[in-house]
Structures are given as C-alpha cells and as structure tokens.
Amino acid sequence: MAAISPSTTVRVPGSFSVTPAQVPCTLVILGGAGDLSHKKLLPALYNLSLDGVLGPKFAILGFSLETLDDEKYRQFARSGIETFSRRGLTEAGWNKFAPLLHFVSGSFTVAADYQKLKQRLAEIDSQFGTESNHVFYFAIPPEFIERCSAGLMQAGLIQTADGGHGFTRVVIEKPIGHDLASATEINDQLAKYFSENQIFRIDHYLGKETVENLMVLRFANSIFEPIWTSRFIDHVQISVAEQEGVGTRAAYYDKAGALRDMVQSHILQVLCMTAMEAPRSTQPDAVRDAKLDVLLSLRPFEPADVERAVVRGQYEQGLVNGEKVPAYRAEEHIPPDSNTETFVALKCFIENWRWAGVPFYLRTGKRMTRRASEIAIQFKRVPRILYNSRPAPPLPANVLSIRIQPDEGLSLNIVGKQPGSPLRLGPVKVDFHSATTSPEAYETLLRDILAGDQTLFMRRDTVEAAWRFIQNILDYWSVAGGEPFFYPAGSSGPTEAAVMIARDGRTWRNL
Fold first, then answer.
1. Which of 37, 218, 400, 507 has the greatest number of C-beta atoms within 10 Å?
2. Same domain, yes or no, for 194 and 254?
3. pLDDT tens for each residue of 53-84
C-alpha cells in the first residue's frame, strides 16, 4: 500500500494566473445567516483565511432577514466553524478572520433593503479597499433568484462585464430547476441581469480533489490515455452511495428524488470528467466545451430504454450500522404514499468513436450499506489463452477504481503470481491513498470564484443538456406511474438493479 505524496496532487490549471489573495473583493452572501452559510460557506472561508488565500483587501457581508449586527453574526460564524470546519478553531485564526465578517439585515423582496445593502457595501469598500469588486453568493431558494437579481440591479449593484468600475459575479447553488423547462426559465432570468461570464453555477461535487484530479490522471500520465477507449475498456461504473436518509431535506427531496438531486448534476458531471476528450487547453471554456460534447453524445432514452435500463427504488425500514432506521415513507414530512425514488440505477451509452459500445452504469442511493463514491474503469478480460486458458473461474478483469469519498485515492486490481509452487495466480491490489487532508469542496470552489476561474462551474448549455438527457426518463415516469422498487435500508439497493446489470453478464462492484 502506498500513499500519494503531496507533490503529486495537481490541480487542473485554469487560464488565470491571478491568485485570490491578489484580488480585492467583498463577498456578499444572500442568505448569510442560513444553514448553507453556517455549515459550509463560513467554515470554508475560515479555512481559506488560515491558508492565506484571502488577501488584505477582502471582506464578507451577510444579508438576510435575521436581526443581527456584526458582532452577533461573528458569533453565528464562530459556532459554525467550531462545529463544521475541517480544521479546529484557534484564537489566532479567529482573530484574523472575525474582522472580515459583517452583516446587514434585510428582506429579499423589499427594494429599500437593497439600498441599505448598497450603502453598507460602499462603507466596506472604503474601509477594506475592495474597489467595488463584488461577488453575490445566492444561498437562497431558487424562487428568489429573479427577485434578488432585480433588487441588485435596481440598486445599481450589478456592474456590466465591461463596466470598468469593479467586477460583479453571482454564484448560483443547485438545484437549477426541477426539469428542462424550469432550468431554462432560471437561466433566462439570470441572463436578464448578468452575462454568462459573470455567472458561477456551483456543483460542490466538482470541487472534490479526486474529481478535479481526473483530468491530471488522464492527460498527465501516458500510461492511461492510450487505453482509455472501447478497445480496452469493457464498461464503467459510477456509484454514489449514502448511508444517511433524507434528514432535514425532506421538503426539498420529496419533490426532487435521486434522479434530479444526484444524477442530473453530480453524477453526469463526473461522467463528463471521466469520458471527455482531451480539451484543446486548460482554459475554462475549453474544458467546459469538452464536457458538453459528452452530454451531447449521450444516447437519448426511448420509453423502452427506460423500462429496460433504468431502475428506481425507495428504502424501507432496515438496519444501518446496527441501528434500526425508518422507511422513507415514515420519515418526518414525507407523505405516507410518496413514490419519490431514493435510489436510481441506469445504463447509458456515449455515441462517439472513443466509447462506442461501452456501457456506463450509474447508480446512487440513500440508506445504502455504507457511504462511498467511486469511478470504476473495468478493462476487458484477458483472452482464454496462456494463464487464462483453463482456470475456473476465469481470471478477473483489471479494474481501476478512483475513490472520491470517503477514502480518497485510487487502486488498480491486477493479476499476479502467488508465492510458492506450483504456479498459482491471484488478484493483487495496488492501492494509493491521499497522504494529505484535501480541502473541502467549497474551499476549492470559493477560491476559484474569487480568482474568476470558471473551469469547475457549469455553463448554461451544460446545465440544459444534462436536463435534456434525463427529461425523457422523468416524462416516462410521469406517464407510467407506479411505485418504485423497495429495498431495505442498509442494503445495496433493490434487487432489480442487480438484475438489470446481470442481464449484460456483469455485476455491481461492492462498495
């Protein structure tokens, strides 16, 4: 077993030589006192501060309805950092970070409150020398995007892309719509107020170090790219398994389900990183063009394909880590007759020369056996000659497993000679683990936002192409109706998913 040294963890370089510490900026968090800020954004910003990523001309301004002043907002931030930061809070670190934090109370729907926000921003710009560079992070429900954008515009807080008086960037959280039509509507709303190069559509999964390192693995190592084709690869499995249930997200999740929540965004983006052609450069749009080509090459689902190659499931009560957990329909705020899927597995094909005939099996589910995410590249089996001429069963195929979480790294399963005589062959696992603690995804993405690097962020055409791909599945389910297949909590999903892949003579990997 070996470890990857820190020097081998290479970030995908964008086209920007500017570091965030060199960029004067005020980050305005709309919804600054909400859960996302408390659990993710403020802890991530604290860690960036510890790393020296935030420069001397940087400030944070929270904006939401809560009645807080600067000091109370700092207390709110401190509690989030103490509970959720990947690194412990130190007094030295806190004393450096706390003065950056400010708060203004206001409603997203009251025009006068945006004037209050404008006045406070002007004060902060003067105090910190942030040069009217503003990033507006929409940590808000999607239904407020139009109103918040209009409020900022009416207050004169949105600079045009070539305004020359500071930059304006806006960060949008998923979900971006619940189907193709609503995603297009949200994108149309944003386009009324912002140019495309000002919009950062965030998918935190793309900030994970292992996902980001996929490009390096493929295109910085000559041993992989020549065999990354249908000539050598039998199939690919991308799995995202969660042990947890719906938790506090019940109201959202029951309207979304696993296909919308995970496949449309996270998993399809990982698929693009795995399957794309080498981009012409590492500049943001070159990388995003290459990912878009993958989505546009996905074979559309016909109704018969959905019936045969898509499985949806829902967890029943069961045991997770030895503890009894309730069925999905028994969770708080979930209707007792809900047919929302908590598990989905599907088989898809990318219709281009590189991947012709290679199936991609995607699966995700809640209340699974364990929490694990991986990309598994299974190569074709050795011909039935030489060492593989008589063994029963035949020698196993080589598998390259790229682990995204929780144990980041990669492993390669090969066949080797077992010690001793006579000649015996057996599997050998070459295993690499990250030797350092990776930054949280939001740390990576916030750093790139401040630097203006859009490489890891979804462009409008990419978002809509992903929705277009799964829309046929959603349409079929809405017409066909029926219940999902049920599986016990703490299992690997419904039996029907195993049957689907078994029809092709393959099996799901144990996570």
1. 37
2. no
3. 998 999 999 999 999 999 999 999 999 999 99
Instruction: Identify whether the C-beta of residue 80 lies closer than 8 Å to the C-beta of residue 38.
Output: yes
Across the range 413-434, mean pLDDT stands at: 77
Give me 469's structure tokens. Answer: 């791909």
* Within-domain flag for 78: yes
Whether 333 is catalytic is no
Q: Which of 199, 314, 156 is nearest to 245 (CA)?
A: 314
How far is the C-alpha of 114 from the C-alpha of 217, rounded, in Å?
A: 46
Q: Which residues pair with 284 in a beta bridge?
A: none
Residues 6 or more apart in contact with residue 131 via CB below 8 angstroms: 24, 57, 125, 166
**46-84 burial: b if 16+ Cβ within 10 Å, else e:** bbbbbeebbbebbbbbbbbebebeeeebbebbbebbeee
Helix (H) or strand (E) holding 493: none
| Same domain? 130 vs 237 | no
The CATH number of whichever domain residue 345 belongs to comes to 3.30.360.10
End-to-end CA distance of the chain: 19
Residue 98 has pLDDT above 80, yes or no: yes
Q: Is residue 467 part of a domain?
A: no
Active-site residue, selected from the candidate residues 235, 266, 333, 433: 266
Q: What is the CATH number of the domain that holds 45?
A: 3.40.50.720
| Domain end position, chosen among 151, 177, 202 | 202
219 CB-contact burial (10 Å; exposed 0-12 / middle 13-18 / buried 19+): middle
Specify the 3-state DSSP secondary structure of 84: helix
Query: CB–CB of 322/333 below 8 Å?
Result: no
Question: Measuring CA to CA, which residue among 106, 139, 173 is closest to residue 38?
Answer: 139
Residue whose tokens read 């060492």: 387
Q: Of 202, 224, 242, at which residue does a domain stop?
A: 202
Report residue 403 as tokens: 């682990």
Classify residue 443: in a domain, yes or no. Answer: no
Q: Are residues 194 and 159 in the same domain?
A: yes
Structural domain range at position 214 = 207-274+298-434+481-502
Domain count, the chain: 2
Weakest-pLDDT range from 236-250, 413-427, 477-491: 413-427
Regarding whether 107 and 23 lie in a shared domain, the answer is yes
- Residues in CB range of 105: below 8 A, 6 or more apart: 63, 64, 65, 66, 67, 68
Is 186 in the same domain as 218?
A: no
Cα–Cα distance between 93 and 425 in angstroms, integer?
54
Each residue's pLDDT tens digit, 207-250: 777 787 888 889 999 999 999 999 999 999 999 999 999 988 88
Tell whether 402 is covered by a domain: yes
Cβ-count burial of 389 within 10 angstroms (0-12 exposed, 13-18 middle, 19+ buried)? exposed
Task: Note the Cα 124 to chain centre separation in Å.
Answer: 32
Q: What is the tens place of the pLDDT at every residue in 354-395?
A: 999 999 999 999 999 999 999 999 999 887 777 667 766 777
